[in-house]
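[Meeting: bench + compute handoff]

Bench side (C.D.) handed over the final construct sequence. Compute side (W.E.) agreed to return the predicted structure before the next meeting so the bench team could plan truncations. Sequence as handed over:
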Amino acid sequence: MSLRSWWNNLRSEPEVLETAPAKLPERAGYEYGIGPGGLTESNQGLGAATQTDRRSMLNQLYEAYLACPWAWASVNAIARTITAGGLVTDWDADDGEGGEDAPDKPEQVLLLERMLAYCNPRENIRQILRGVIIDLLVFGDAYIEVVWLGRQPVALYSLDCPSMLPIADEHGAVTSYVQMTEQGQRATFEPRDVIHISLDSPRSSVFGVSPTQAALLSIVSWLFASATSKEIFRKGAPPTIWVDHPAGASPSEINRWNAQYMQRNVGPRNIGTPINTKGGATVKELAQSRTMDYLQFLNQKRDEIIAAYGVPPAKVGIIESGNLGGGTGEAQDRTFMVNTCQPLAELVLEALNFHLAKNGFGVEGWKLKFRDIDMRDSKTVEDIRDMRLRNGSWTLDRYRADIGEPPVDGGDQPVLVDRQNLVKWADMDAASKAGIANKLRGTALEPAEPVHGEPATVEKPEPAPPPPQLAALAGGTTPGRRSEPAAPEKEAPPMESARALYRRRLREALSALPGGVDERAA
């Protein structure tokens, strides 16, 4: 141990590397299934398994994918859904709300888009990525060949997964890739020439585990049940019978009767033909037809297969009305996108962004992504837009921009729309006070009259001072009378006595005015 290493170990905080090293330190752990010699062309790990065994397993998975329509439908539903919007570039700071305008694309991003627009003379990027996702779902691994011109990628090609052999040491570090075809063709690739994408592996292996491999038992059971049903219907679904031949019947006579029965009574053309016997032979039905049991078994295995792929029934054409737990169409869409498509898409995008965008073109601040496809019902989308506009989450201009319409005057002001009123959020304080004042009108807490151009106030106004004629009621003197010393304060009379006293003093004050006032007016 060097002095620097010893000192770093004594420090309370680990040393932070300012720049990533050109080569990472070697790991100490080992990968599952890789022996002391690592992965070679003749030994691809998995204990004592050889490359022939792994290739046979991958070929079996491929045949199961082709033979089982539910495996085919599930895999293609996932691949087509993920790649439906195509592969595009996106700004890292884009939050999807349109708050800031994206900057101009740098030269590196334009070069990346140009390469993706023309991957090779035979395939486009959507076909390549669809094949990648299919390989992941069928084999658990996918490979893309990258053709370089100097330090820049110029082309992408798909690679056949069963023929690809990763060459790695016992720790799982890949040093190269070799392709060995069934015709004996051989090609060698450097690590940067191949983008290797793997699904999750329960035991941390170089190779991934595909849902087709996990559902292989259910797929094989479905294939056998389907083959059995095919044979039953090919023979016209004949009953299972028991024949009791006479005691003296020879084996040749029994064989001849069997041959005649197969020719005259078995097959779609012979449905309804009676079974004839002679010499005392009897025919009885041994068991009733179990065709419905076979069909129910097929449906059970079908559900197991699509569950292994994580595909809702509606996505593969299974429509079951009244199925408890099935959820609505929108709920199935969301489950399908969140639990199945999005994790797989992010796995592919992570590899493409690292190998192509970052290492290939040196792109910073931009990334590759699959364009989102809105799978919701059009009425649902419009209802959500209307709700966002009414509660002020969106402005009218934001609403119009979402449907491709230009902005309008005043459309940048958010509003709150209830059942009868429309209020700008900027005027919400004034609208709130006006609403409270309206509720208090006619009560003891009635607020002051609103002033034009000013928001209403909910504070109770101070009472106006009494006129001079009524000053005596407030403790003053009445005109024309001699002031008298104030009487000592007495206890307040009851409410009725105070009202009578008020009326009397009012009549006295009005009678002292010039010209007098009719008492009835008081």
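W.E. noted at the follow-up: The CA atoms of residues 75 and 134 lie 6 Å apart. C.D. will use this when planning the next construct.
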